[in-house]
Specification:
This protein is an alpha+beta fold and 148 residues long. The protein has two domains: 71 residues, no CATH class; 44 residues, no CATH class. α3 crosses α4. The protein starts with 5 loop residues before the first strand and ends in a 14-residue tail after the last helix.
Length: 148
């Protein structure tokens, strides 16, 4: 923030996410993931576009496209690994995209197996999608120790 302004900038390829939210009192907030907005009681307004600057002050939100050649090319690992599953990034539900990845994997790589096991935490939705699509039972085989 500078003086009475909050400024957000997303890179020209939109590699990392950035979104705008509104608190109950009307205040505008920025976050890398929509789940951060949820935790402070804000509602998602929209994602900041690739190559966009937003300037937020008492007059509202001013959006500036600072790079005419910008095109969205986000990091796939946001949906595969980095992002929390309760986030929505660029209009895509992270949990659903992970789950659908498992379904697509079954469609493309069918195997005979006794069980499907996911790797916590980010691999669990894909494993569940694979299990349901295949009819192979999903089993918790790995547990993440939350204390170390």
């Amino acid at each position: 923030a500078t003086q009475n302004k909050l400024i957000g900038i997303r890179d020209p390829y939109g590699i990392r996410p950035l979104c705008i939210g509104r608190l109950e009192d009307g205040s505008i907030v920025l976050a890398s993931e929509s789940c951060a907005l949820d935790s402070v009681g804000a509602v998602l307004i929209r994602d900041i576009n690739a190559g966009e600057i937003v300037i937020i002050d008492e007059n509202g939100i001013e959006a500036i496209n600072y790079n005419e050649q910008s095109h969205k090319s986000p990091c796939a690992f946001e949906h595969i690994y980095f992002a929390r599953p309760d986030s929505v990034i660029d209009g895509l539900d992270v949990y659903k995209s992970r789950y659908e990845t498992g379904v697509k994997l079954w469609e493309q790589q069918k195997v005979e197996a006794d069980i499907v096991i996911g790797v916590p935490d980010s691999g669990l939705p894909a494993a569940q999608g694979y299990a349901i699509a295949s009819g192979i039972p999903f089993v918790t085989g790995l547990v993440k120790n939350k204390y170390i």
